[in-house]
Amino acid sequence: MSSDLALDTALQHTGLAPFDPHTDAAPVAVPIMRTSTVRFRNLDALDRAQADKADPEKRSVTYGRSGMDTHAALEQVFCQLESATQALLAPSGMAAITLGLLALLDSGDHVLIADSAYGPVRYLEKTVLRRMGIQATFCAPTPEEMARHLQDNTRMVYVESPGSLLMQMLDMPALAEFGRQHNLLLVTDNTWGSGYIYRPLELGFDVSIVAGTKYVAGHSDLMLGAVMSTDPAINKRLHDNHYALGFSISADDAWLALRGARTLPIRMRESAANALAVCQFLDSRPEVSRIYHPAWPQDPGHALWQRDCTGSNGMLSVQLRLNNAQARVFVDALTLFGIGFSWGGFESLVQLVDTSFLGGHSYWEQSQDSLVRLHIGLESTKDLCADLAQAFEKAAQA
Ligand SMILES: *Cc1c(COP(=O)(O)O)cnc(C)c1O
After folding, report:
1. CATH of the domain at 303
2. 376, 378, 358: which is closest to 367 by C-alpha?
3. What is the mean pLDDT of the chain?
4. Residue 2 exposed, middle or buried by CB count within 10 Å (0-12, 13-18, 19+)
5. Bridge partners of 204?
6. Among 56, 165, 241, 336, whose CB has the most other CB atoms within 10 angstroms?
7. PTM N6-(pyridoxal phosphate)lysine: at which residues (predicted)?
8. CA of residue 214 to ligand 1 center, whole Å
9. Are residues 250 and 341 in the same domain?
10. What's the pLDDT tens digit per position in 228-279?
């Protein structure tokens, strides 16, 4: 795909089905190619495919685990989104993170992990990495703080920008510079940007990981992860480990994600505009002490967001002058926000964040306030704000 096309255009013209050589026709929607098994016309054809398998760029398939045309089309879309040369699919965002860490770290290595990264990464560290002899330090995601925790065996910086729960924007080019100075692999969780509004590989990172479960799939109906890079040596290592670990996703899920990706631009733009409208409403409320959303001008990360991002999305957190019991009444009173984890779908969601968990986040300033995370979906903001207003009234009466 020509690189001077706008991403919105390229997204509609990537991963298309090829023309049939006999009919010169092709389906506009790539078919769902379900198969566990690949058959070959003769042994020479099989031998050629086997020989090509060592080269990730050839995407040679001899068996269904790595998927055929539907998977390949979705991989091309992820490459397009992230400016990557390789994308590997995983059965969930968490599986993609696991692949990135296990493929690129050896026993005896040390990794610096942003203390604002997705919570379950701490569980992965405790349950798996430690047992594999991989050491980790969770610290504030700035070059200065990370430099203080460098060890002789430090191999990787793992971050997420903006960070989970508090949407802390990181200075990615500065972190990339720090990583290069110390010969560290730079890995980031880019689920927030999903390649569309934030492109860490262009900002100097080596590996970008996306939970396709969220905005790429976009309809809250499947689990998916992807790991992207441009570096040939990293690509080879990710590719070989992906194969060895046996990760596989169904062609149906690949097809649904591909379908979702075609409308990613309009869904993300609409959620982002709706989120800003909700921020404006929240800002007018006496219960609100702080809004966490990088596109909101008062957010401390706003300048970094303006410099490094091309858009925003529907994620925001709001700090409320409510005690825990009042915050529970507030959340329970909402009728248009589903109480649930996840985000990036068509619908609005709410989550009451356990602030004791935020003790490990250097960005959190200790407070008696409550923290509520919202995902703003595609509903009318007039209805969403009315719903929030009536829930505030109920919380005040509690
Ligand atoms: C949801 C999420 C993940 C994990 O994705 P799953 O598909 O749910 O495993 C990883 N990182 C971030 C930032 C997420 O929000």
Report:
1. 3.90.1150.10
2. 358
3. 97
4. exposed
5. none
6. 165
7. 214
8. 7
9. no
10. 999 999 999 999 999 999 999 999 999 999 999 999 999 999 999 999 999 9
Co-location of 300 and 217 in the same domain: no
Q: How many domains would you assign to the chain?
A: 2
Q: Which protein residue's CA is at the shortest distance from atom 8 of ligand 1? A: 93
The number of the ligand 1 atom at minimal distance from the alpha carbon of 225 is 7
Does ligand 1 lie within 6 Å of residue 116's CB atom?
no
Element (H, E) at 86: strand 86-90
Helix (H, G, I), strand (E, B) or coil at 2: coil
Question: Which pTM was predicted?
Answer: 0.97
- Ligand 1 mean position, distance from CA 52 (Å): 33
Is 223 near ligand 1, meaning CB less than 6 Å away? yes
Enumerate the active-site residues. 65, 118, 189, 214
Could you tell me if 302 and 253 lie in one domain? no
C-alpha to C-alpha distance for 175 and 159, rounded to whole angstroms: 9
* Confidence band of 3 (pLDDT split at 50, 70, 90): low
Structural domain includes residue 51: yes
Range of the domain at 305: 264-397
Ligand 1 and 98: CB distance under 6 A = no
The residue whose CB lies within 8 Å of the most ligand 1 atoms, and thus the one to mutate among 160, 191, 351, is 191
Q: Which of 201, 231, 262 is the last residue of a domain?
A: 262
